[in-house]
Write a structure and sequence with these properties.
224 residues; alpha+beta; three-stranded antiparallel sheet; 4 helices; 34% helix
Length: 224
């Protein structure tokens, strides 16, 4: 019985040692184009912090492909000098406080992808592997399609369609008038007297229409 208890304690001790380094990150981070963004990474180690502690950040695009090491730290920071993030990564962490965060300058939409923070503090080298999904967008387009937006679209869309149809109809009428003018069309005095009076004559639109017709008749009529 004592043997089983001793074995259980040893197993528990081994598990604690194996997972003695714990890392936490933000699962999702949203950033705006050309505005600096910080990728936070905190860790907790049961061993004293020494100069052997290392921090590595890796990146994988949303489209997939191989993972790229974009930052390394061991006593001093070693940002990437080649690749997508060349000269754009800066160290903002503090290992004494369990902080292994980095910042990205001038992010673009091409930076969208998954970032992984890995910390090793020998003998604590085994830990979870958390990931941060970065989404970079334009600030002017950071809105969600809510029910209010959908309702607005449903209300204004028919109005826009009606306006377009009216413009098309007015364009056709204007084309007919131009065609009549070019073809020498003119109205007789009987046709003019037989036309019903429009109720829109009192309005600005009605007066303009009457004036246009008078101009056409004046230009087309020939002296008898």
């Amino acid at each position: 019985m004592r043997g089983w208890a001793a074995g259980g304690l040893l197993l528990l001790y081994g598990i604690c040692n194996a997972l003695s380094l714990e890392i936490n990150v933000d699962p999702e981070v949203q950033a705006f184009v050309d505005e600096q963004v910080t990728l936070k990474c905190s860790f907790r180690s049961f061993s004293p912090i020494t100069e052997k502690l290392t921090v590595d950040w890796t990146y994988q695009p949303l489209t997939g492909g191989r993972m790229e090491t974009i930052f390394h730290y061991q006593s001093v920071a070693y940002p990437a000098v080649v690749g997508t993030f060349r000269d754009r990564i800066s160290w903002v962490g503090n290992v004494a406080k369990g902080d292994a965060s980095i910042a990205i300058q001038n992010p673009t939409m091409n930076d969208n992808g998954t970032f992984t923070c890995a910390v090793k503090n020998p003998p604590d080298v085994h830990h979870n592997i958390p990931q941060t999904k970065l989404t970079v967008i334009h600030r002017g387009f950071s809105f969600q399609l809510t029910s209010a937006v959908l309702l607005s679209i449903l209300v204004f869309l028919p109005s826009v369609i009606v306006v377009i149809l009216l413009l098309v109809r007015m364009g056709r009428k204007l084309g007919v008038l131009k065609h009549r003018k070019k073809s020498g069309y003119k109205k007789s005095s009987i046709e003019v007297s037989d036309e019903p009076e429009h109720t829109e004559q009192g309005t600005c639109r009605g007066r303009m229409g009457t004036w246009c017709l008078q101009c056409v008749d004046t230009d087309d009529e020939e002296p008898y």
